[in-house]
C-alpha cells in the first residue's frame, strides 16, 4: 500500500536517528519548552549563543548539519533524493519537535513513491492533509478510490501502472486537481472517455493519456472540449494517433490548447488547420502501415538447400512460416 511505502521511506530518511532527532547529541536544546537563552528552539535559533552554552558531549547545529550536507558523510542522503527529503532532514536537526509523531503528516506537500511495487492507494494517505502533489509512477496500481485521496491534491501522476477503469477515481475526485497523468496504462475508449470531462476535473490544466488504447477520436474530443482550462494534452501512443488528420483536428477542436504531445501549437499551425473541426468526415477510422522485414535470423534459407536430382526418391522436407503483426 501507499502507507506502507511511505513508512518505509520515513525509515530510510532516519529522521529520529543521529544526527537528526532528539538524543544525547542535542539534549540540552530540546529537554524543555525553551532554549537556554529563554527562547524557543527552532530554525532561527542563534548558533553562537547555542555554542557558548553547549554542554560537554553535545554537538552544535552547524556540526550536525555538516554531517548531512557533506557527500562523503555516512549520514548524507544518497543522490536522487528530493528537495523535500533534504528539507525534512534539516528540520529533524534544527527543530525535531516539529516532525515528531503525527506532526510529520502536516509537513508533506509532495510525496513521490516510484517503482516500489505499490498496488493499493489506502485510506492512510488521508493523514497527509496538506498534500498537493502525489507521484505514484511505475507501480502496480490497477484501481484508485478517490475517497482515499487528499482533497488538497493539485498533481496526481499515475504513469506506468495498470489502471484500466476511472470510475472509482471519479467518484469523488480532488476538486482542485490541475494535472492528471495516466500515461502508459490500460485505458480503453469509449468506455473511459466519459470520465474525462469538466464534471470531474473542472480545474484540469494538464492531461497525459499517452500510450493507452483510445481509438475514437471524435468521441474523445467531444468529452475533452468541456475542459475549459485544459492547456497541455498528451495523446501520443494511442491507436487514434495513426489518423492522418489527428493533430490538425485536435488543434482546431480545442482552441485553448497550448501544447499537444509536448509540441507547442504555433499561431500559423492553428491558422492552417482552421475549420477542420467542422469536417469530421475527413477522419477515417483506418490507417495504412507499411512493414518491411530487413533480416530474419534462425530460419533456414531455402536457396542454400541442395537441389534434388530429377527422379530422386529421397525424402522431401518443406518449411512454412507465419509472421504476425499486432497493432
TrEMBL record:
Superkingdom as given in the UniProt entry: Eukaryota
Swiss-Prot/TrEMBL keywords: Leucine-rich repeat, Repeat
InterPro entries: Leu-rich_rpt (IPR001611), LRR_dom_sf (IPR032675)
One Gene Ontology CC term in the entry: cytoplasm
Repeat among keywords: yes
Family annotation (Gene3D superfamilies): Ribonuclease Inhibitor
Protein name per the record: Leucine-rich repeat-containing protein 43
Source organism per UniProt: Podiceps cristatus
Amino acid at each position: 500500500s501507499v502507507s506502507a511505502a511511505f513508512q518505509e521511506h520515513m525509515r530510510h530518511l532516519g529522521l529520529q536517528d543521529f544526527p537528526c532527532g532528539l538524543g544525547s547529541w542535542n539534549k540540552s536544546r530540546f529537554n524543555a519548552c525553551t532554549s537556554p537563552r529563554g527562547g524557543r528552539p527552532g530554525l532561527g535559533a542563534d548558533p553562537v549563543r547555542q555554542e557558548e552554552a553547549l554542554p560537554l558531549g553535545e554537538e552544535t547545529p552547524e556540526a550536525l548539519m555538516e554531517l548531512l550536507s557533506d557527500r562523503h558523510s555516512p549520514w548524507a542522503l544518497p543522490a536522487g533524493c528530493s528537495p523535500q527529503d533534504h528539507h525534512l532532514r534539516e528540520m529533524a536537526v534544527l527543530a525535531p519537535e516539529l516532525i515528531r509523531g503525527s506532526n510529520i503528516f502536516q509537513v508533506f506537500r509532495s510525496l513521490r513513491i516510484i517503482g516500489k511495487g505499490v498496488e493499493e492507494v489506502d485510506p492512510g494517505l488521508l493523514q497527509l492533509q496538506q498534500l498537493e502533489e502525489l507521484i505514484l509512477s511505475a507501480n502496480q496500481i490497477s484501481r484508485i478510490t478517490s475517497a482515499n485521496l487528499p482533497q488538497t491534491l493539485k498533481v496526481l501522476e499515475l504513469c506506468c501502472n495498470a489502471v484500466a477503469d476511472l470510475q472509482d477515481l471519479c467518484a469523488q475526485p480532488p476538486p482542485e486537481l490541475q494535472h492528471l497523468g495516466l500515461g502508459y496504462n490500460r485505458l480503453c475508449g469509449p468506455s473511459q472517455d466519459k470520465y474525462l470531462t469538466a464534471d470531474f476535473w473542472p480545474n484540469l490544466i494538464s492531461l497525459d493519456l499517452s500510450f493507452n488504447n483510445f481509438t475514437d477520436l471524435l468521441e474523445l474530443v467531444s468529452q475533452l472540449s468541456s475542459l475549459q482550462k485544459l492547456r497541455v494534452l498528451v495523446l501520443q501512443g494511442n491507436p487514434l494517433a495513426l489518423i492522418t488528420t489527428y493533430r490538425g483536428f485536435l488543434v482546431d477542436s480545442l482552441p485553448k490548447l497550448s501544447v499537444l504531445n509536448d509540441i507547442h501549437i504555433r499561431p500559423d499551425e492553428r491558422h492552417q488547420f482552421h475549420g477542420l473541426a467542422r469536417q469530421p468526415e475527413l477522419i477515417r477510422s483506418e490507417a495504412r502501415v507499411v512493414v518491411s522485414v530487413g533480416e530474419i535470423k534462425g530460419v533456414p534459407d531455402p536457396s542454400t538447400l541442395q537441389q534434388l536430382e530429377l527422379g530422386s526418391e529421397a525424402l522431401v522436407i518443406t518449411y512454412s512460416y507465419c509472421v504476425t503483426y499486432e497493432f
